[in-house]
Write a structure and sequence with these properties.
15 helices, about 280 residues, about 75% helix, mainly alpha
Length: about 280
């Protein structure tokens, strides 16, 4: 299905975020996000025939779009600051599960069957296996409650809600995502000015930021929007569990590490969950 291919393309781009993030580890996160989103917004120019007027959407649509992109990244970065990053990232990856189980709340008439929930839980278990296996297992789960977990949960709910709301809003061109990204990028740069120290970037860092904007903080959002407009959000949510798996696998490949048992187990669980979900019949 076209929607699956578009979603998978977005997921592949998102999987490069961790690798690029490691290479840009010295860049303050809000500066990284703001520069990436502003760069990514430029993709909308060729999509709209270089006519920014085609980015225009009603106010509520703009609020949902820009608020979703900015709110997700703001909450995620605050979560990563206030809680151990491995655990916070794991909480963040509840968003595909949220897409599956919250679909009826945003899309009247759409039902979630027991099989959808079971497949989503299997997918989340696979994502957890990939993340925790990479981080060192249960030893990373000590430390008790952190307020950052609530921010990470808020990030997960924000992205799941944004993804589903785009189906409920009046139809808008995918090029309008450029406007969402531009506003979210400016808000992220404002957060950088208020919350982070100033940074001087090298030519190499600016080049990597450009790749970030064209890929996981730009092109992926356009592909994701196009996929959601064409496909079943429950099915796409299950596919999204591939993101942490591919991200971990790419990091291991870059660092010349062989896949271990946790990656193999995560692959079987996530692919199995996606296949299981795809076999569930009925849109409603």
């Amino acid at each position: 299905m076209t929607s699956d291919l578009l979603a998978l393309a977005a997921i592949v781009l998102w999987s490069s975020l961790a690798t690029l993030g490691v290479a840009l580890a010295r860049v303050p996160p809000f500066l990284l996000t703001g520069a990436g989103l502003l760069t990514g917004s430029l993709i909308a120019l060729p999509l709209s025939g270089f006519d920014p007027r085609r980015w225009r959407v009603p106010g509520p649509t703009l609020a949902v779009g820009a608020g979703g992109l900015f709110g997700y990244h703001f909450l995620l970065f605050m979560g990563l600051r206030l809680a151990p990053p491995v655990q916070a990232n794991l909480v963040n990856y509840l968003w595909p599960l949220g897409m599956v189980v919250m679909a009826p709340l945003f899309l009247p008439g759409m039902r979630v069957r027991a099989g959808h929930v079971a497949a989503a839980l299997l997918g989340f278990a696979g994502a957890a296996t990939a993340i925790l296996g990479r981080a060192g297992g249960g030893s990373m789960l000590a430390g008790g409650f952190r307020w950052g977990y609530l921010f990470a949960l808020g990030a997960a709910l924000t992205w799941a809600s944004y993804s589903l709301m785009t189906r409920r809003l009046p139809r808008f061109p995918t090029a309008a995502v450029g406007g969402f990204a531009a506003i979210a990028g400016l808000l992220a740069l404002l957060c950088h000015a208020v919350l982070e120290p100033r940074a001087s970037l090298s030519t190499t860092q600016w080049g990597l930021l450009a790749l970030l904007g064209l890929g996981p903080l730009g092109g992926a959002f356009f592909l994701w929007d196009a996929a959601l407009k064409r496909g079943d959000p429950r099915r796409i949510g299950l596919l999204a569990f591939l993101t942490p798996l591919l991200s971990t696998a790419l990091l291991m490949a870059v660092h010349h590490q062989r896949p271990d048992a946790s990656i193999i187990a995560a692959t079987l669980m996530i692919v199995g969950a996606a296949f299981w979900g795809s076999r569930i019949r009925g849109e409603r």
